[in-house]
Amino acid sequence: MSVAEQPRVETPPWTATLNEWAATVDHKKIGLLYIGMSVVFLVVAGVEALLMRWQLIVPRNTFLSPQIFNQMFTMHGTTMVFFVGMPILIGIGNFAVPLQIGARDMAFPRLNALGFWVTLFGGLLVYFSFLTGGAPDFGWFAYAPLTEKTFARGPAADLWALGLIVSGIGTVTAAVNFVATILGMRAPGMSLWKIPFFSWTILWTSVQILLALPPLTAALIMVVFDRQLGAHFFDAQTGGSSYLWQHMFWFFGHPEVYILILPGFGMIAEIVPVFSRKVLFGYEFMAAATMAIVFISMGVWAHHMFCVGMNRTLDLYFAGASLLVSIPTGIKMFNWLATMYGGRIWLASPMLFACGFLSMFLIGGLTGIMLAAAPFDFQLSDSYFVVGHFHWVLIGGTLFATFAGLHYWYPKATGRMLSERIARWQFFLLFVGFIVTFGPMHIAGMLGMPRRIYTYDANRGWDIWNQLATVGGLIQAPSYLLFVYNIIASLWKGRPAGDNPWDAWTLEWATTSPPPSYNFEEIPTVHSRRPLWDLRHPDDPDWQYE
Amino acid sequence: MSGELLKPPAIVPYRGPSAAQWGMLAFLLSEVAFFSTLIMVYLVFLGADTQEGGRGGPTPAGVLSLGLVIGTTICLLSSSATIHLAERALRRGEETAFRLWWTATIVLGVVFLAGTAYEWRELIAQGLTVRRNLFGTTYYTLVGFHGVHVTVGAIVMSIVLALALRRQVTARNPHGVELVSWYWHFVDGVWVVVFAVVYVVGR
After folding, report:
1. pTM for this structure?
2. Could you report the predicted ipTM of this complex, rounded to two decimals?
């Protein structure tokens, strides 16, 4: 299909464009706003990480003071989880879900806009703390009593808690919206078991958000009450309990990692079949495995707390339950491989990132199984091994999947192709840099290096591993800059994409690129999981096999 | 396939809850998670003040009296009935009856709030504050957040009433009223649990 060059149109004044984006209720624009916000915060949090790596490159370095170092790791973690990870996935979901299920918009467009702005301002509120004499410095999981007035005297802790309450409300509105849209607004014929897999994972991520985010909000409110009203929730000296905060935080914190990975699973399950030219292997098993992960992972939170000194029964339960999660996750792993097996694999940039995901997430999952075993965790809890592990799943898992998804849907969102050449450079720099950064951290951790220390002595045997990690960080850094350059430059330089550049099968590829504000002129009717295949191949439609 | 195209099976139309109903259910699920946390925390700290190292001060058995709270509970629970009658009246097109029952619901909600305010004044007079001890901390947080939900419900219902008086809520669009009534039933349901935990088990 050839696409004609668009005729030149008069450029509207910049105020009109600004107003259009600031006041928009279109799910596609809101999705892009979420993604734009997340990319900005990604760069900010990446700079924070690099500053820490530079401090740790040699023993007894004085590049950052201990105070600043603590602020950096707190803000890096908080930003990456709340203002990069969740918003970028919600953004991709916002853009893709209504298109995938054949709807004209989300169920509540204005609530959708509210959710975005509230999330953004929550992020700005947390960052405002820099102007009030220093950012929070108690780590992203903010263990009590460090957040109490006695230990955190400035307003940073209040701004941190309020910012997360505010952005948490935004996240919950997004989840409500996704549930309403996916369950109530699917195209005629799209029964529950015909939902495109990415939308399916967004549905269950949303359920998990609804269950896990409000307890965090409640706990944060208690922090604010302790600090502002003189309440005693986490004040151990007056009968309060810092242990309770750990339980409440991780009751959110552990499901959170599944909130961050499930949409990634969804994107991989869209991309692997399209670029292997086969249907997704075992859709039903994959769908059921998604639900199983949601349910099991609601009951594993205290595996973050083995070293607190819970009793043996709880240790056993939480270790066992955590190991159970690997079963549905393993099902997914094998099904992706079975989808690729015998397929005609096309290693375009989305598939390249998907392969990066498959290999790296597997390793992250394996170190996860190691840490789930309580006796192993007793040795390595709060060491660099843990830092290596969760970066391996969050970058090797979530981030690789997110880049796969962004490269996959960019042509749909903009009507232009990304530069494949830059995308390949980006991938290989990230892949190599990532392994060089986080691989050595596992070894430093096993050699006894605790996390969150601002410096170390030369005679510990940690130097080489820290130097490697810093070099890895420096290899990664240009990869993110290449990505930012690619998504901006391709808006003008990119090859026109056409409606369906990847020859995919779900409904978002049935409309134009970029889609009109109403998405579909006529709401399509769905008979199978690959409606576009049915449309293109009326002689051999999918529904006769499903 | 030989030339002739296959005819797809007929489509089964969707008959489940509407998007707005799913949205309200999802929102209420998040509220369940929120209140579960507050209730759990209340139970965790129950009796912590009288243990060694505790702050002492007023205890639930010492200061909570059942008389007033049974009255306000009856008000709140009967408001679930009145809002149901209001919704039914609207569906049948009896708009005057709707407005009457709807107003009654708002009044019952406000009476509940007034009762709570009176109760809190008494408790504060007896020295129970958020600062005093863990009972105060957890009690005001749990009952307070429930009260905030009753207040929000009363405000939303007042807005609906204003719209109804301007003939903008009629039998032809009962869906908003239905969702508000779901929320209200939920808030009442939460109160049953809070009442059981704070005034029955916790005393």
Report:
1. 0.95
2. 0.95
